Amino acid sequence: MRRSTTPLAFAAIGVVLLATACSQGDEHVRFGDKPSATQRSSAPAARESTVRMPSNPRDWTTQRTLDNGTKVVWTELKGPKSGFTGKVWAWVPKQYDEEKYRNSAFPVLIALPGSNGYPTNYWFGADLKLQETIQQAADEGKGLPFIVVMPVLNASDKDYWDGSDIPGQPKMGTWMSDDVPDLARENFRTYKDPRGWGFFGSSSGGYVGMKMVLQYPGRFGSAIAGGPDTEPTSPFWAGHDKERKANDPGYLASRLIAKGGPKVNISIMLGTKESGQAATKAFVKKYDKGPVAMRLHVIQNGRHSGRQYAESLTDGPLEWISKRMLAPEPSE
């Protein structure tokens, strides 16, 4: 059963829907140009093997501007592999444009909303201040300066797909595992290593982020999941038991443990006033072994709320995954 969202989270969604209609005009932003052969060859050889330079930058539309001048932007993506079309928001930290990092990759954090996660993604909003939180943590040395990518989670506002390719349904698994990361690679300096890729999600978004890391450990290395389910709950799984099992985090974790890797890191945030605590704690206890490193972060008096998960990021989870991911490397 999909877990409900508290009024706090619904309020955030309402604010974001309003913000969507009030984006800052038609101001367009592009994060660099397609690098020439000369530019590619100028990067230090040791770094060139780990850095993927942007291959096909596009124009993005400004959604909002932070006090430090950085911008949250959006674009519409027609997924080449999934066939699904939806909006994607993005933000780069101020360090991204600093001269000393001109040849460096930056870690990517794909932020996923709870509830239906369509037609918007509430993590871009000024009310939840996800970007401000990440920037402050990076400035204080308590977290990495992540590129934040924020796609829609589902194909409509009436149903949910567990971030999976369910037979006969929109391919929301491929959208999340391939199309969205490919968009980031086309536009930003990113790492080839899975330690340069992670997720942060609330509720159903936390479930999808956690599942992606367990399902594709060769692509994504870390996740922070706020109040996630621990098993597939989409109604569209009816009659598709084999495919449902292939998207079950418990099955995926067991398979990864049996194989002995690759290594992944998952921080689960759980409020003491949330339902389903026993199942979540049992999940962490069972699968925190071998290549699967799990950490349970308990939020005292916390409810099932995206706002509370965002506010608790700097209480440990963001720093924990930052220590396990790749930081940008300044030029020598």
From TrEMBL:
<feature type="signal peptide">
    <location>
        <begin position="1"/>
        <end position="21"/>
    </location>
</feature>
<dbReference type="InterPro" id="IPR050583">
    <property type="entry name" value="Mycobacterial_A85_antigen"/>
</dbReference>
<dbReference type="InterPro" id="IPR029058">
    <property type="entry name" value="AB_hydrolase_fold"/>
</dbReference>
<dbReference type="InterPro" id="IPR000801">
    <property type="entry name" value="Esterase-like"/>
</dbReference>
<feature type="region of interest" description="Disordered">
    <location>
        <begin position="30"/>
        <end position="60"/>
    </location>
</feature>
<keyword id="KW-0732">Signal</keyword>
<protein>
    <recommendedName>
        <fullName>Esterase</fullName>
    </recommendedName>
</protein>
<dbReference type="Pfam" id="PF00756">
    <property type="entry name" value="Esterase"/>
</dbReference>
